[in-house]
User: Fold this.
Amino acid sequence: MSESLQALRGMEDLLPPASGTWQHVENTLRGLLLDYGYQEIRVPIVERTELFKRSIGEVTDIVEKEMYTFDDRNGVSVTLRPEATAGIVRACMEHGLLRNQRQKFFSTGPMFRYEKPQKGRYRQFHQFDVEALGFAGPDIDAELLILLARLWRLLGISHVSLQINTLGTAETRQRYRADLSSFFRESFDLLDEDSRRRLDRNPLRILDSKNAELADLIARAPQMTQYLDAESAAHFAGLRTLLDDAGVAHTVNPRLVRGLDYYGRTVFEWVTDRLGSQGAVCAGGRYDGLVAHLGGEATPAIGFAIGLERLVELFALAGQPAPTRVPDVYIVAAGEGTSRLAFRIAESLRNDVPPMRVEVHCGSGGFKSQMKRADRSGAQVAVILGEDEVAAGAAVLKPLRSGPMGAGTEQQTVAVASLADAIRPYLAGPLTGPVIETVR
Ligand code: ATP
Ligand code: MG
Assistant:
């Protein structure tokens, strides 16, 4: 294939069997969120550029250099969403979902950022995003973190740890910001280009710098805790008590500021040492100022996003295989008239109660090669149809693996009308559980 037709850099195809692992991780997350009372919201992948600029903030990596922005055919500047919060908040405002109401939402899908592609970092990547709007906390802050701790347990992931911090209110942040700014200005010569640019407009972001040469300087910088107002301090203490009660271990990281401008009070990040330099799996925080900033009525809110590529990778490293979905029955058919009977039997087994999972062999081939496929499919039994069986209105039932106690191991010829009853004993027991198994 010519290079000009290949996928764009940083935009990956998801193929089986990896897609099966993704489904398991996504189903686990979706089930967990529904159980905690969160509802799904779906918003467009493309929005007006202005929305992201206003909500994420002009002096951020995302807006400065990572957005996929272009003019549509009408000359309107639009952007492929780099994150989900902006679109969800817009939708809530547009549909009046915040008037004297509280909302607990989740959403999932692709995000786009023009970054240097590498392991764990792509240009199209995927997030699960959770937002709770209308809640002042700290109870809801705790719920989100407790829910995430349960997610790691459900997926058997142990190498993640929780860092939290509080950014206070807009007023405390302003005082802190001013002091921080003069602190860094005194060491202007030591700063890198990015940090110099941030000095005036967003000095907090300097704390977030990944430049190792700045680590010493940043360690000596004033800390938010010294500026915290009493209410924010109480909020933070309240959150920590609830986390302690629930046994959710956490460390306070005073350097944790998050990249986005609209955060205040609680911020957090789940990090791992298993994914090289792409150590952040899940990040979030409180954005009490955003709705008002976008022209709505002040609404407290908090949310987080999980990077699915990194989550799936962590799940795979934990070594628990994702449950796979295998057919109960594989139908092998060769000879005149066998296809029609195969389809009739398949549909009637699928109609049985409870329904059987049936795969019909398609694409012809002799008995031997079909039986190989039947075996590889993982099915419990094969139903074999030849011209003799069609003539007799019967089928050969062949067990493919050792079944539950009481199910025979010999193949037998069964009248088509009683096939379902003959198959059922092979499906009894734990192997016939619900299609989506819950790990608890
Ligand atoms: P990083 O510091 O790794 O760039 P970030 O602060 O930009 O992360 P957020 O905007 O908080 O990330 O997004 C939440 C999560 O989305 C991250 O913790 C990460 O798991 C995932 N994520 C962010 N950018 C990418 C990307 N380019 N490719 C894959 N996953 C990503
Ligand atoms: Mg980033």
